[in-house]
Amino acid sequence: MNKQQGFTLIELMIVVAIIGVLSAFAIPAYQNYVVKSEASTGVATLKAVLTNFDMIQQETGIGPKTLEAIGTTSGAAGSLGSLSLIGATSASGASAVMFTFNTTGVSSQLSGKDTTFTKSTSGWSCSTEIPAEYKPKGC
């Protein structure tokens, strides 16, 4: 009698079924991770310019007039979105920095959403359109 080698068809089908069940749980979890990661990157991009914003305001008495004044450009945010100053054309300069997610190339949950850090006498406050389940802790 010959000794059987390899796997039977039923054994292979069981392995394929197990992989299918595992991937059914893993893919949505991974997609949530990607959205949270993109949201955190947007907030981190904003936080990186806040110190320079404060320095300009302390040295000149007014907020910065351009992104270049705080050491960045609109495109510095990369493929996720863009930075902008709010109120930069006013006599007192900008009062806030905003990150706007692109409408393409990012998760649909973040597409076109804004996150803003606003300067007041008590410090910085964050407001965002990011859904609560993806909102980073720093905002």
Automatic annotation (TrEMBL):
The chain crosses the membrane at residues 12-30. InterPro entries: Bac_GSPG_pilin, N_methyl_site, Pilin, Pilin-like. Pfam families: N_methyl (PF07963), Pilin (PF00114). It comes from the Bacteria. Keywords: Fimbrium, Membrane, Methylation, Transmembrane, Transmembrane helix. NCBIfam families: IV_pilin_GFxxxE. The pili are polar flexible filaments of about 5.4 nanometers diameter and 2.5 micrometers average length; they consist of only a single polypeptide chain arranged in a helical configuration of five subunits per turn in the assembled pilus. This is Pilin.
